[in-house]
Specification:
It is a single chain. The chain is built from 4 helices and 12 strands. With 200 residues, it is of the alpha+beta class. It folds into 2 domains: 52 residues; 139 residues, no CATH class.
């Protein structure tokens, strides 16, 4: 039986295919409308996935045992590790703490944003930024690997030309820092203006 989260993802996928079909029918003369519709879909899909997982939108929500069970094993482990480090008696999160980027054959990249995980000790966030972790996982949980982690302002994940790209905002007070990580199939390579930085 499919979970509510799976149903939410499937519904979003069907909607996206219909949306793309409609956009194609309208031709290539309205790029701004295409962009607006695409952005609207992304926001709607994120909201639907959050509601399907049972996480409250905007506020903190305690994850029940059933909600934890529906998450991939790698995400559960990361949350339990954060819970232990924070000395919390429960895992409380906000919508958007885990974001999924499917690849194929059940494989996916998962980005965990720990600014959306409650921690009373402040261990997850520092003046440099909050902990972010990027995981490579299979749907059955048999393949699980952390490929990157860091305390930064924000990260965004996307596919471009068939490759996973991670945009990292590592800005500090008074300065701007942007890095781009590219997955080569085995590891992430990070290029900055000062040279290459090795990542896990």
């Amino acid at each position: 039986m499919r979970s509510r989260m799976d149903e939410g993802k499937a519904a979003g996928g069907r909607f996206s295919r219909r949306l793309i079909g409609k956009i194609d029918e309208m031709g290539g003369e309205i790029p701004m409308m295409k962009l607006a519709l695409a952005l609207a879909f992304c926001l709607a899909a994120a909201d639907a996935q959050g509601r399907a997982s049972g996480v409250a939108q905007g506020g903190w929500s305690k994850l029940s045992a059933a909600q934890l069970h529906r998450l991939p094993g790698s995400v559960r482990l990361a949350l339990h590790q954060a819970q232990a480090g924070c000395g919390a008696d429960a895992i409380r999160v906000r919508s958007g703490f885990a974001r999924y980027l499917p690849i194929s054959d059940g494989l996916q990249f998962i980005a965990i944003h720990f600014e959306h995980v409650e921690c009373g000790t402040g261990q997850l966030c520092t003046p440099e930024g909050c902990l972010h972790r990027v995981l490579f996982s299979s749907a059955d949980g048999k393949v699980q690997r952390e490929i990157w982690r860091g305390k930064v302002r924000e990260i965004d994940t996307a596919f471009f030309a068939g490759n996973l790209l991670i945009e990292v905002d590592c800005s500090q007070a008074g300065g701007t820092c942007k890095r781009q990580l590219k997955w080569n199939g085995k590891s992430l390579q990070i290029s900055t203006s000062s040279g290459a930085i090795r990542a896990r």
